[in-house]
Each structure stands twice: as C-alpha cells, then as structure tokens.
Amino acid sequence: MDILNLTLELTTSKMATVTTNQSVVNVTQQDSSIMRNRQDVDKYITPFIYAVGFPGNLMSFIIWLQKRMRHSSGCYLASLAMTDFIFLMLHVMYELHEVWKVDTVDYPGICESFTIVFLAAQYLSPLLVLAFTVERYISICHPFTRERYCTPRLAVIIVVSLAVFSLAICGIQGYFYRVDPATNLCNVRKEIIEGGTNSFWTIWTWITEMLIFLVVPLSVLIFNVMVILEARRLSKFEQHQLKSRSQKTSATTFMLLAVSFYLIFTTLPVTIVYVSYFSFPEGKDNIIQATDHMWQRHFKYLLARKIIEEFGMTHYALNFYIYMITGKVFRQEFKRLFFRFCVKEIPERVRTEYSTLRSSFRGSMKNMTVRLTNGHSHKEGNETHV
C-alpha cells in the first residue's frame, strides 16, 4: 500500500507543502526521536524481510513446479511465489529510492514503467490468494463441479487474467508519475494532485487500494468461513467412506486456509491504520513540534503505522514457511529436492570411496560373524565329543 502512503502525504501533509517562510520550514522539518525510530524500523526490519522472503519465495516456486505438485492449487501457489519474489525485488528499488535516497527510478521511462509493474505485483498477490480460496470453496462446498473448475488449465487462464487485470488498473499510474524536470525525481505530476483529497489521482488511488486491500481480504474471509462450516458439516459416515480422499483434501485445505488467513491478518490492519489517518491530524505550522500535543500524537501514529506496514509486508515473504509448517506433502517434496541436490553436489570420487568403505565394512562384519559362529560350533562339538 505504498501508493496510498504517498497519497496521504502529498494531499494532506503540511510537511510536504512548499513555503517561503524559512522559520515555518525549519519547524515542520524538525527532527524528533519518534520520526528517527520510524526511519530505523524502515532501515532494519525491511532487510530482514528481504532475507527470509527471497530464498523462501524462490524455493516455493521451484517446489510447486514439480510434477507431483503441479495440480490446480499448485499453479496458483507457484504464481503467488513468483509474484511475491518480483514484488520484493521491486521493493528493494523502491526502498533505496524512498529511504536511502538512491537514484534507482529517477529516469524517464523507468519511472513510469516501474510504478506500473511495482503496483501490479503488489495487487496481484492478494488476487491470487482470493483465486485459490474460491477454488478451495468450490472443491469443498460444490464437489460435483470440482472436475470442471478445479483444473490446472483453468488455473493458468485465471492467473494470466488476474495479471492482465492488475496491469490494467495500474496502467494509468504510468501517466500519473513522471520525472519532475525541476527536481529530476520520479514523482506524481503536480497538476494531478491539485484539489487535494478531491483530486482524480487521490480518488482513483483510494478506490483501487480499498478494492484490493479491503474488499479482497474480506472476500477471502467470507469464503474461508464457508469452507470451514462446510467441512464441519461432513458426517462421520462420509469421512469413513472417503477416508483417504478426505484426509488428502483436508491437509491441502488446512494449508491453503493458513495462507489465506495470514493474508487477512496482515492486510486488514494496514488498511485500517490507513483509513484512520484523518483521526490523527497534524498540528499547526507555527507551533514547535516537540512540545505540541497534536504533532506528537501525529508522529506516534506515523510510527505505529510504519510498524504495522512492515508486519503487513511479511505476507509477501513468509508463505514458504507456512507451507513447511502446515503442508506435509510440501515438506516431503522439499526433503526430496534437498537430498537430491546434496547427493549431486558430493564429488564422484567421495561417493565411490564411501561405497567401497561401506561394502568393506559390511564384508568384515560378515566374516567376523561367520568366524565367531564357526568357533562357537567347534567348541560345542569338542565338548560333546569329550
């Protein structure tokens, strides 16, 4: 929801207002410990999310592409892993630009295209979660239509359609953003934000953000509740008759429910905190921020919002670990790939020496057993003879 963050700052923030009164500028840009803590959260927590997100999404993508895992749900989850991986890559560029002030996107063409793809990836991830949630709802609540709607081919078509839809609703952002000739920075056109909260850009951003980060998570929640209620209504007779199929379906359902519920728990708080922005207004321009109650309240809100934003971003990074915890088949496939890779990495000479040593050891143990047995039998024979 980085675009909504920028919308709030550009359309309502006095600190973003250009003024000729130098004393006012100094007051509104005065450093505070709360704002420094907010920057620290950005600088130190976000790299940790990258550290766990990049390898996790890459491993998820590889595993879901395996032949055994390439069912309809696997198509959605492989697409989700790649989408999250792309989003994190683009977020690195965004973070370098916004937090570390590195010129990563301040170039004509890159500014516009980056904004479109970055937002499209951000939007596509919740839409994919909604897609496989609806598929699971069909599979559980309408099992007779499962063969028709829950197929890998249809899953691929839906994924492509959602990607096109995400690019379509974000395409207009390519017009909204450009490299400002005065500052040489990638930013929103000044004429687009004229009118403040009533500007077309602000209205368009609020509509699209609420659609993706409020309507979609609530829809996921509703479908999940229906799936859970239907699963609980299954009779003991049905579970007994469909034991193996029911166990496999239940395991997959539990894993997908965990992923979709995590999306809800990480997305809705961010949406709520953004909607609450106007409940924490800024103070007056000519008041010292460090001592003004309104400014301090606003700064505390910004710090809390940043922490919740970082928590919300984890759903782009932690799906792999959810799969590992809740998915037995996923863990088995991970172990299979891991051990196959490890065995392949062992040099041929080492494997040959290990096999020879193990064979020699087994042969020695066999000979020792034979000698001991023969010796024992010979002794018993002597004793009988005497």
UniProtKB/TrEMBL annotation:
It is a multi-pass membrane protein. Keywords: G-protein coupled receptor, Membrane, Receptor, Transducer, Transmembrane, Transmembrane helix. GO terms for cellular component: plasma membrane. It holds the Pfam family 7tm_1. One of its GO terms (molecular function) is G protein-coupled receptor activity. The keyword Transmembrane applies. This is G-protein coupled receptors family 1 profile domain-containing protein. CDD domains: 7tmA_FMRFamide_R-like. The keyword Membrane applies. It is found in: Membrane. It comes from the Eukaryota. Residues 56-323 form the G-protein coupled receptors family 1 profile domain. Gene3D superfamilies: Rhodopsin 7-helix transmembrane proteins. The chain crosses the membrane at residues 44-64, 76-94, 114-134, 154-176, 203-229, 250-277, 313-330. Its main location: membrane.
